[in-house]
Structure formats: C-alpha cells, structure tokens
Amino acid sequence: MNLLVVGGAGYIGSHMVKRLLASKHTVTILDNLSTGYRDAVLGGEFVQGDIGDPALLGKVFSENKFDAALHFASYIQVGESVKKPDIYYQNNLSNSINLLNAMNAAGVKKFIFSSTAAIFGEPSYTPIDEAHPKQPINPYGRSKWMVEQILEDYDHAYGLKSVCLRYFNAAGADADGEIGERHEPETHLIPILLQVASNRRERASVFGTDYPTPDGTCIRDYIHVMDLCDAHIAALSYLRDHKLSGRFNLGNGTGFSVAQVIDAVESVTGKFLSIDYVERRLGDPAILVADATLARSTLGWSPKYSDLKTIVGHAWAFEQKRYPLAP
User: Fold this and answer.
1) Do both 133 and 205 map to the same domain?
2) Which residues pair with residue 38 across a beta bridge?
3) Is 133 within a domain?
4) pLDDT tens-digit profile of 214-233?
5) Model-level pTM greater than 0.85?
6) How far, in whole angstroms, is CA 62 from its chain's centroid?
7) Which helix (H) or strand (E) holds 70?
8) Pick from 109, 203, 267, 320: CA 20 to 30 A from residue 6's CA?
9) How many angstroms separate the CA atoms of 249 and 271, rounded?
C-alpha cells in the first residue's frame, strides 16, 4: 500500500515507519519535528510540515495517491493538557479535522488513529473492554475521544473508514536497537528508570504506595511498541479486506505494578535504583489493564513481547546504545 504516516518521526510513529518499510509498503512521513527526530526516520519520503497547514496537506495529497493514512501526531502529556488545554485542542482536535478534510477531498477513505486508554477516565471496572464508559477526565483524553466521535460522523457522511487503536502503556524499543523512546521531557516510567540506571538522572519518584494492590503501587498494562506496530499492520488489512470501521483496545491484558517494573529494571540493568517514595498524584487510578479480546479475535492480533523483562531489555539496549553509561 502507499501510506501517509503523520507524526512518523515520533516514538511510536518511527517504529511504525520501520515496520511498514519492512513489510514493503511505500511510506511518506509528514512531521513538524516539534517532538520527533529526523534521525529516527529510517526510510521513506520525509516531508517536514504541520497538519495545521491546509495548503501543505493539499499539496501532499495532490502529489501522492495514498491508500490510507496513519495519524500519530498528537500531544500526549496529561499534566500539560490540564495546564495548556488550548494547544491540545488545537493540535489533537483541530489539526486532526484538517487532516480528515484533506483526506476526504483527495478521496482517501482509510484511516488509522492513535487513540488512548485516557478516553475511559477513572475505570468503572478492569480489565477495560471497548464497552467501558467513555468519561475522560483531562483535555488530552477528551481531545482523543472527540476525534473518535468525529470519525463516526465522517464514516456516516463520507464513507471514510477508520480504525481507532486505544493504547494502554506503550513501552520498549525496536529489538534491533536502532530507535527507541526519546521524549523531552520524559514522563514514562520505564525510560525514566533507565535514565537512573544509566546515570542520566539521579533519582526517580514513585507516586503512592498505599493503593489497593498487592504491593501498594499502581498497576499498569505495558505493551511493547512493536506489538502496537503489528496491531496497525493488522488494522490496515482489516480496512482493506472488510471496509469497516472499528475500535480496539490494545494491551497485554496483564498488569505490572510500579514496584514490579522497578524490580525488572534492576534485574535487567544490574543497577540499584535510587527511588523517592512520595504522595499519590491526583487522578492516578490504582489499576489500568486492557481487555484486548476484541483485537485478538477481530484483527487476528496477539502480542509477541508480553514479558516485562523483554520490554525493559529492548528499551535498555537502546538506552545503552544512544547514551553510553556516564561515569
């Protein structure tokens, strides 16, 4: 297929580009490099620009006959979205509408959207399936849920078929060590712990030790980034073969506590981590675990890297390659 990958220089997008190229797809990457890295794009045709620019979108779609578009160009920090809701609604919502309108004008009718477990808000039950109420509690989650609803309207009105993939906790790195997670600032647990292990950060914080979990720390569902990429490959096939829209939760279906993640990082790296145990953060649920039964049965997808030490090991290999141990 001839594919447009928006946000293809970011963490998940760059892994997706590598996976698509390995599957012999033709790929054009559109990224403004606000949070992505040009050197993380390992092939394809790269266009630097913003989906907030309708003229640029019109040019890209007029010069290429795309079969589908994949959208990874969202802001993702929950805390920032609370402080700066304007930029989240502009980028995650308004710019997504620009992209959909450009697709519709060009007759591109297949779309894959990176959604999030944040659309569910505080869980009413776990594991969380697709029927769970959608009650996002922050602008980040709301912006994603709004796009999901807009996609339903575009399907009914224009026949634009979409698959929304609701990630839980993306983690890990390309098994070859070529690319990995590079957020600035970093807010995800595993790379923060690895930065402590590689002496790039002095300490890490654990927010809350009194949750109703076996060890008192929060439990999350960590899914390897390459397993996410495989789910996108399966979603492309689903759109091509069935011409139906779909919404799928993506996770391993197994939760690991913060304490278990710390143990895994110490085991993989051989380093003792300096940890500060502090108060809970407002809005952190005790347990967030996906029920990915629908993705398994409908898309024929299943995670290959569900072992926590494997996820950590791949991320550590990238950390060591890019940032050799500081003295």
Assistant:
1) no
2) none
3) yes
4) 999 999 999 999 999 999 99
5) yes
6) 28
7) strand 68-71
8) 320
9) 34
